[in-house]
Structure formats: structure tokens, C-alpha cells
Prior knowledge:
- The structure is a single chain.
- By secondary structure, the protein is of the alpha/beta class.
- The chain is 35% helix and 20% strand.
- It is built from eleven helices and 14 strands.
- The protein has helices at residues 16-25, 31-41, 56-65, 138-152, 171-182, 202-211, 226-232, 241-255, 273-282, 308-320, 341-350; strands spanning 9-10, 66-67, 72-78, 85-90, 96-104, 107-112, 115-117, 132-135, 158-161, 194-198, 216-220, 259-265, 288-294, 325-327.
- The strands form three sheets. A ten-stranded mixed β-sheet has the order 3-4-5-6-9-10-11-12-13-14, with helices on both faces. It has a two-stranded parallel ribbon with strand order 1-2.
- Strand 9 (158-161), helix 5 (171-182) and strand 10 form a beta-alpha-beta unit.
Amino acid sequence: MKENNDCKTDIKSMTLEELTAEIAALGEKPFRAGQLYQWMHQKLARDYDEMTNLPKLLRETLRAQYGYTALTLVERRVSKLDGTEKYLFGLADGNVIESVLMRYQFGNSVCISSQAGCRMGCRFCASTIGGLTRNLLPSEMLDQIYAIQRLTGERVSHVVVMGTGEPLDNYDYLLRFLKLLTQEKGLHISQRNITVSTCGLTERIRALADEKLQITLALSLHAPSQEKRQKLMPVANKYDLGGVLDACRYYFKQTGRRVTFEYSLVSGENASEEDARMLARLLEGMNCHINLIPVNPVKERSYVQPERREILAFKNVLEKCGKTVTIRREMGRDIAGACGQLRKGYMEQSGQAKL
Length: 355
């Protein structure tokens, strides 16, 4: 696994077993691998120089042969409304990604990006404007969490892979990221405290189900029918809604974890009471949770939020049909809190935005 635009192996993306083999190949004793792994994934060192219990010669060898991912803070915004923090991080190749820290009573949750950009094309999302630049390495996903812990001095207990990008479009690196994040000798975050979002890549949902992890799968549904979904989400032209829902049922069968359905409410598009009834029929018999999201306005799109009474009416219809429903609390609206907004604004100002 190589760093982007670099011939060096990305050391922070290695498992402990792989790292042990690498250290042995360098002629070092195996315990050095454990020390190095601890510096990277528990002590959250930013570079080799911080690893003071490693011999200087070993640190010099590592620096010469292995790339070390440490994100650069480009911008940090703190919401005056709710204390949510949004971060723009720079990557080694000049790309930028964004992450969000949300503080709840149950602990600190970080929403991370899995790609620089996105190719899924969802009409209401700023992340996809400009398309996909590249996948993020496992270390680049991890270091969003590590950087936020370093900057705040606070423990992260929950992780949501729901920022810029489609996680299942970066499937292999996602799996490695999850393994590193949950290992006992790393941050050791519980699988049950991790949510991975997807817009519905059917074969990847089934593959993830077969891993039998205990993470929560969140499907970006956003419409109660195939026809309406195609208007909002181009990915629906490839993945039929019936097949996507069958894959979600398979995920529950394999893992015992109920699926969360994310549903962005767009006035005049998918937010009527009839839409709610259609949605209830669509999900009949499924063990699931529906998360209603009043759409965040994006200047390139004409989509607007429904009025509060419409949102509550939609929720009421679903609850009368026996569904478990929540309305996502808007967080960080005054700091471009929605996916992709901060990154997109930065790229426009710096002249990096694609035409």
C-alpha cells in the first residue's frame, strides 16, 4: 500500500501483524513493532521524532523507507449554536477533506470522509459537485479521528463514515480502516459505535454483510419509490430500489443489526404525507430505523427544506404505521455543517474547484 504520489509504503495503514513482519525484515526485535504501533494508534504521534523510545537509527530508517500520514489543519470552525466543530484537513498531495465533531450526552461522535470528492452525483449533496478526486487511504481516514482527538484533548467514542465520499466505493480500504480502528491495541472503538453510510451499492452491501461485523449500516434512501429515487440519486439508475432493500434485509440476516434509513426531506419532492405512506409500505416488515433529515440548502440546487409542520406530519404518518422514526437535529448549520460544503467553498476560493 503506497502513499498517494509517493513511492513509500504507508506505514500507518499496516496492521500490527504486517508491521511486525516489516520490523523483523529490518533486523529489529519484534517488540519494536508494538512500540511503533502504540505511538501511531494510541499516543497519536504526528511524526517519527515523537517516538522517543525508538532508537534514533530506527527512526531514521523508518523516515527514509515509510510514508507517515499526518493531516494538516487548514481550517477549524466552531458553531456558536451548538458547539459542533468542523475541520478542513490538508492531505500530503494537496487535496483537502472535511470532518465534523459532534458532542452528545453519550459521548463525542466524529463524522469522517472516505474519499476526496464523490462520484455518486446525489442532487442535494455538495460533496459530489466536482466529482471524485481519489479514495482515501485507511491512514487518512484514521487520522481525521486522531487529529481531532489531538486538537481537542477529548476522547472520541463514536465514528460515522458519512462525510464526503461513498464508503463502499472505497471498500477494501474501508475494511482495513475498520479493523485498525477497532483493534484492542489501537483506539479500540466498539464496532457497535460505528456507522457506515452508503447510497446503495448492492453487491458491496452484501459483501459487508458477509464480514459479519457489528457496525450499523445506514442506507441513504431519500425516496419512497424507484422513480422518485432516480430523480434525486443517479446511482438508482444502476441499482434498483428492490435489490437495494433486499441487500439491506440480507445485512440484517447476517449481522442481526437493524438498518438505518436516511431520508432527506425536500419540499415538493419527497416530503408529502402520501410520500410517507409510500415509505411505510416500502419498508413493511423490515427491522429498521428511519432518520429524517431536513435537507441542507446548497446554492447550486433549488432544493429547500419543508416547513416544520410538514416534517412533523411526515413523521406522524410513519409512527402511526409502526415505524421507529427520529428527526435529525441540525448541527453546525452556521459553519457549513452539511457534507461537502466547507471543502467545496475552500476549493472555490483557492481555484481548485473543477469546472
